[in-house]
Amino acid sequence: MFSINISPILLRFLFGGSTVVASTLIARSFGGRLGGIFAAFPAVYLAAVVGLGTEYEGSELILVSEQLSKGVLVGMAADICCALAASYLILKYGWKIGLILSLLFWAMLAPLIYITWFGF
After folding, report:
1. In 1-120, where do the E strands start and end?
2. Is 0.85 topped by the overall pTM?
3. How open is the CA angle 34-37-38, to the nearest 5 degrees?
4. Secondary structure (3-state) at 15
5. Calpha distance 86→96 (Å, rounded)
6. Are 81 and 109 spatial neighbours (Cβ–Cβ below 8 Å)?
């Protein structure tokens, strides 16, 4: 039967939500550039790794952590490309269309990067 362990979900929620709030407050207080640095904080990744520690042990934990980390590398590379695309596309098309286009770019690029680095 399918079961859900609530503690890893709450952990991700707390780490991710706290990071969003902190980056927003920093951006309002010190400007968008510094807020953007904190917006890229890998809180969800850290929460996921800690959550894995509650669900797995030993060699299985190492295997799952390695798989997660490979996905994070792909995601971060795609995030950098998305941020670069967004900085251009938002200025060219406005924030709504620019954001949509940059997210679509990310959605196409992330699987392409993963297949290129790790195969299918």
Report:
1. none
2. no
3. 95
4. helix
5. 10
6. yes
